[in-house]
Amino acid sequence: MKKNNLQQYFPMIRTRKELLREIGANPSLKTQFNTLKPERQQEFLNFCSGVKGVRLLYDSFFKAVMDPDRDPSRLSDFLSLLLQRKVTVVSVLSNEGQIMPDTLVVMDLIVRLEDGSITTVEVQRYGYAFPGQRAACYSADMLLRQYKQKRDQASANGTRMNYRSLRPVYTIVLYEFSPAEFHAYPGDYVHRFHQVSNTGLEMDLLEEYIFVPLDILKEIVQNNGIRNQLEAWLAFFCMDEPEWVLKLSENYPMFRKMYEEVYEMCRNLEGVMQMYSKELRELDSNTVQYMIDQMQEDLNRKDAELSQKDVQLNQQHVQLSQKDTQLSQKDKMIRDQAAKLNQKNTQLSQQENLIAELQNQIQEMKKLLAENPKL
Q: Residue 336: in which H helix or E strand, if any?
């Protein structure tokens, strides 16, 4: 069987026939594979056989490649480009120290940098599910955790808590499908936020945010090519077309090593199937929640529209009532004027009758005088 382009570049990739043979020979793996929908089976076979690149935005693959415990230089390099200064990841923080019990606040990857600042990298499929309010909760959670740690250390040392010892927290969000408002800026794929004053006074308020709409980045790269190392990193995360995998591997050798690691992972079909099935369960759950949230938002919007229409109808009803009143008043005026006109017509008729009677009397008197001149 002729190898595809990725198999030629990464010889550890197996053919579709080889994959199906192993799946068929392993009852447990075969059962898992058969529970997948046909399109999901196809996707699994495609990235394991190199027909398509691996979806590195899947949580398991992303963490495997970017795990600082295995190679801290990767995440350090990526964060240095995003934060626009040289940083070094020194440790990974656990999610167990969260202050807020909200189940939504579960961060993807939280690390401490060499200067003590804390950074979380969150990968979101749907931007709708990660609005600014949620990002603020993540940031607040990191800041409170740092505060608690500093407070406990001061208490253990018998010293006072010093707020100046607190370091910045950075919330970085990568959107696979970004919210609509980002598409008003089609030429921008990195949005940085921090608190500023209205006067220009500067204070270290610690919380900063970076939002990256990867769907916009893909359009930019497809039109203009990869122009810098940050675009290369982001393309590595979100572009799974074989031609882009090859371009990145050839132009940036560090990515070739990462792809090799991923395709070595894919040789463990049972392990990759478990990872993939877990991703799909979470994806389906998130999609259902996303659809529920969208439906609720649609209902809220329609309720607001109906309420607005009710207000408009009530206003129209008031206007119609006012017009009815005005018409009734005009009808009354017309009736009054008609009655007056009828009265005048009656008076005029009476006067005309009186004049006619007087004229008859005058004619009779003229006739009588003519017959009796002596009168």
A: helix 269-371
